Amino acid sequence: MRTAVRRASFVLLAALIVTPLAQITMRGVFNVPLAGAEELAKYFLICLTFLAASYVTREGGQIRMEEFQALVPARPRWLLQLAIEASGVAVFGILLVASVVTVTRNLNSVTPILEMPFWLFFAPLVVGSLLLVLETLAMLAHTWRARRPEAKQTVLT
Amino acid sequence: MEGFLVVLGFLVLFMLGFPVVLAIAIPCLVYIFANGLPLDLVAQRTLYALDSFPLVAVPVFLFVGSVMNSAGISRYIYQFADTAVGRLPGGLAQVNIFGSLIFAGMSGSALADIGGLGRIEIDAMRNKGFSAPFAAAVTSSSAIVGPIFPPSIPLIIYGTVTGVSVIQLLLGGILPGILCVIMLMLMTGWLALRRRYPRTEHWPTRAELWRDFKPALPAILAPVILIAGMLMGFFTPTEIASVTVLYALLISSLFYRELTWKGIFDASYETIRSSSGILLIVAVAALFGWILSVEGVPQQLTALMLRISTNPYVLLLIVNILLLVVGMFLDSTTAILVIAPIIAKPLVAAGVDPVHLGMVVVFNLMIGLLTPPMGLALFLVADIAKVTMKEVLKEMMPFYIPLAITLLLITYIPAITTWIPRLALGNP
Predict the structure, then answer these.
(1) Cβ contact B282:B289 at 8 Å
(2) What percent of chain B lies above the pLDDT cut of 70?
(3) Mean per-residue pLDDT, B253-278
(4) Do residue B40 and residue A101 have CB atoms under 8 angstroms apart?
(5) Element (DSSP H or E) covering residue B127
(6) Over residues B248-263, mean pLDDT
(7) What distance in Å separates residue A147's CA from the closest CA in chain B?
(8) Which of B86, B175, B332, B353 could in theory staple to B365 by disulfide, Cβ–Cβ 3.0 to 4.6 A?
(9) Is the pLDDT of residue B314 over 60?
């Protein structure tokens, strides 16, 4: 699953770069602007952000400041880390429910130019938040089993 | 009042070490549940925040920075900078700053500069006897030139949010970027003379300069080609990002010949990690911004400041103070999305040029990358240099002076920003 997410993210990044280039080429060389190219590029951006979010979380790419935690003794720090991961599961769970609710209430809507069905437009948020819940749950289980705090939870500090 | 509680909640959670995404989302969700607002709001605000064409440039420009590092372009830039300015007092520290200016011509991101060129520069400076915290401070302070000198991700976002011409904004960044580099080099020279830092033993000969200039030329030419393409109407500012990738890949494969498939994959995964992390914050920050707007928090703060004066110079001073504080707590993209639309109207109405205001806003927020608690550039550079935030901050202190002077010059001499756009667009 994780490998699939990584590969899908790579394809999405490539699509994100190629779509505006295709638009420039079609407009500049053939004088035929690609209708919906902008909407497609934006959609790839949405897909990339939400699908890759679980990969980012697992790789420690979530931005945070750990200076305060470093001052806290091991036991309370472990509890704090558990609380952070549990709240992550809750927040991404709410996001998942919210996105499913939104899709079910707008099943007949479509996007303006490409006329993409609303469920497809919102699918990255549904799938992304589900993956985030699973990845954060795995992290929570790992921290629980370790019985001690992680030295670092992000690669950015 | 509830709006201020949401801000307070964010600050407390952030200080406790919650990821920014959760620190923003938790108080927002509490607000939504407490006020009985529909759940659709959460999903719609979060998703539609990314339904923006200018934001497409964010991962693409990050990719350019990563490709430049993978393809060895950063190394050639560093080599040329070393030959050109290595003899100045401060030696490699000056090389670090000058190299950032050249790197800025292709990458619109400070973090890409730190992650690539910065890594090379910090290692080289340590090997020459510079302290790691000083190397980290020089690297992070000079990296903010990246988002000032064109191309620039924050300026593109600012233009989109406020409706100001992105082309004018990008052209407006040329002189402020150069001015910032000069100020940082002056401070570095002064520190180097006091601390007796090493430098290259002789000035380069014309042959040496030409030898190292040639490999760096494709990178140096990038901003010229991109700006010319924009002015001639070949592509829009957001499309520049994709064109820059194409250019970087072309010169990497045809000229430098160091880019491998592994390098492309590594650059891609690094880009995915950085951009998804940043854009997820942008998505959640939209909910945060919406709550603040509904509660009238920015409006109240702005109104409070505007009550003090209607003089544009006084207002700009107030904006500087406001943005410096905001930049300490919010990342630049979020801050632009939340603050810019609110402060732009009253200031432009008071007679401030919109392009000039855009530069003041973005420069302020770039300084925010270097100020705790939310100094992303500090986080990254501390990690690369393997030093603590405290050590970097101590060495950063002198560098806040040239940055503040540059900010004041940009703020009170609008021509520094507006001269080139007016000249280029036929309105000198």
Answers:
(1) no
(2) 97
(3) 83
(4) yes
(5) helix B119-127
(6) 83
(7) 19
(8) B332
(9) yes
Task: Tell if the CB–CB gap between A49 and B29 is shorter than 8 Å.
Answer: no
Searching chain A, which residue's CA lies closest to the CA of residue B280? Answer: A49
**Per-residue DSSP letters for B309-331?**
---HHHHHHHHHHHHHHHHHHS-
Q: Which residue of B has its CA nearest to A57?
A: B277
Check residues A5 and A124 and name the one with the higher pLDDT: A124
Integer Cα distance of B9 and B30 in angstroms: 10
Nearest chain B CA: its distance from A97 CA (Å): 8
Distance from CA of B116 to the nearest CA of A (A): 15
Q: Which residue of A has its CA nearest to B390?
A: A67
Chain B interface disruption, residue of A57, A82, A116, A156, most B CBs within 10 A: A156
Asked whether the predicted pLDDT for residue A72 surpasses 60, the reply is yes
- The confidence band for B177, taking pLDDT boundaries of 50, 70 and 90, is very high
Out of A120-129, B109-118, B163-172, the most confident range is A120-129
The interface predicted TM-score of the complex, written ipTM, equals 0.91
**Pairwise CB contact (< 8 Å): B276 & A10:** no
B209 touches chain A (CB under 8 A): no
Residues in chain A closer than 8 A to B268 (CB atoms): 10, 13-14
Rounded to a whole number, what is the distance in Å from the CA of A88 to chain B's nearest CA? 7
Q: Are the CB atoms for B265 and B68 separated by under 8 Å?
A: no
Position B125 pLDDT exceeds 90: no
Nearest to A106 by CA among B274, B47, B413, B397: B47
Q: Would you state the structure tokens that stand for residue A6, as one six-digit string?
A: 């990584």
A vs B, Cβ pairs < 8 A, gives 184
Q: Could you tell me the pLDDT band of residue B333, with boundaries at 50, 70 and 90? A: confident
pLDDT at A30 over 70: yes
Measured distance CA(A50)–CA(A45) in Å, rounded: 9
Contact at 8 Å (CB) between A117 and A87?
no
**Whole-number Å distance between alpha carbons of A63 and B14:** 10
Distance, in Å, from the CA atom of B79 to the CA atom of B84, rounded to the nearest integer, reads: 9
CA dist., res. B180 & res. B186, Å (int): 10
* pLDDT at B190 > cutoff 90: yes
B144 vs B111: CA distance, rounded Å: 8
Tell me which residue of B26, B392, B72, B275 sits closest to A59, measured CA to CA: B275
Residues of A in contact with B269 (CB under 8 A): 6, 9-10
